[in-house]
Design a protein that fits this description.
Largest sheet: none
Oligomer: single chain
Distance between the termini: 25 Å
Shape: globular
Number of helices: 10
Radius of gyration: 16 Å
Length: 176
């Protein structure tokens, strides 16, 4: 395991806007960005249908396990994640939900939290120099979040734009 979280981007981040513009959104993602995310931010929690929608978008195979969570449990766990000032609690509490690992938890924060959060994804990580997915730990998550927030700010991007750019670059450049 790495003592330091280091990123060595394969993409010149000055070109991130170009790659973000090449990203093709599907209808589900448009719905999440335009309707679901603003509703969640206003409510301060996820209702179960919104939770299932975000989980399906990130990891369709987890749907059965995600569905097993009760409406009350989803609401309370996500309320904690979206209201706490503890960075560690924000991400880790979400993994208490059945069917939610670090990538889905990061997706919930990405679309639901008022602060910018990246999505943990093998494509984005590849673009940032990780040919293999590292073990997900809070230390890695914090390093990844700090790095992407700094990069987004430096290059005048939203976190969503940066996420799209990292994903798209990998899609077009990473060999299977």
């Amino acid at each position: 395991m790495h003592d330091l979280v280091e990123f060595k981007p394969k993409l010149d981040l000055q070109d991130a806007r170009y790659w973000a513009q090449r990203f093709q959104q599907d209808a589900l993602e448009v719905e999440i960005e335009q309707e679901v995310a603003p509703r969640i931010r206003k409510q301060g929690y996820l209702a179960k249908p919104d939770f299932l929608l975000l989980a399906r978008w990130k990891s369709p195979r987890s749907q059965k396990r995600c569905f097993a969570n009760s409406e009350d449990y989803v609401r309370e766990v996500t309320r904690v994640a979206l209201s706490t000032s503890s960075e560690q609690l924000r991400i880790e509490v979400l993994t208490l939900l059945d069917g939610v690992g670090w990538p889905t938890a990061s997706t919930i924060l990405h679309f639901s939290h008022r602060e910018p959060y990246p999505i943990l994804d093998f494509r984005a990580l590849w673009t940032l120099g990780y040919d293999e997915v590292p073990p997900y730990t809070y230390k890695f998550w914090l390093g990844y979040t700090t790095y992407t927030r700094t990069a987004a700010e430096r290059y005048g991007l939203t976190m969503r734009e940066l996420d799209k750019a990292l994903w798209q670059f990998s899609k077009e450049r990473q060999t299977p």
